[in-house]
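I am still learning, so can you show me any protein sequence you like together with the matching structure tokens, please?
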Amino acid sequence: MSKKTDNMSEEELNARHTEKMKKKKAARDKIIATKTIEKGLTIVHTGKGKGKSTAAFGMVFRALGNGMKVAVVQFVKGKWGTGERNVLDKFPDQVSLATMGEGFTWETQDRQRDIDAARAAWEQAKAFILDDKHDMVLCDELNIVLRYDYLPIEEVLEVLEQKPEMKHVIITGRNAKDELIEFADLVTDMTQVKHPFRSGVKAQVGIEF
């Protein structure tokens, strides 16, 4: 505590806190009142830190809880069994799930195969983005295939420009293209501070997948 509050009673501290929070709420309400635009967002999760897909699936589950219809296209993790996929399978009326990837590019070691898989996944994602059925589309790890130039960024931006006005599109993966960052409405860069993998800990069930 500061010297100013050291000699204050609990009652005085509580009263001061209440007054401070009243002022903060009034300022916050004033700011919120100016936000009147409602639109579908293009959202990008990038950066070296863990949590890009995890946060995106959190949005997916939130959307499902609000009765929205969601499409998920996994560009890279198609070979992985994931807890998210097991949960999504329980919502067949709300979820369209396409696991198109064939694994990380360093696992396939076949550039043309990766390009073909990326193209197939993008064609499915494009159909979801442009349809009038889904409220949200998650393009998981799309940034990875864009990083390796398996898809032209110009084509992706052109499709995002054409999406229905109220549709949300989430794109995850490291090394998001500058053009995509500039285009997006919401961009989060996950910063890695510490990761158990560096200490020899392998991927854990319920944490990584």
About this structure: The chain has a mean pLDDT of 89. The beta strands are 42-46, 70-74, 95-99, 136-140, 168-172, 186-189. DSSP finds nine helices and six strands in the chain. The radius of gyration is 21 Å.
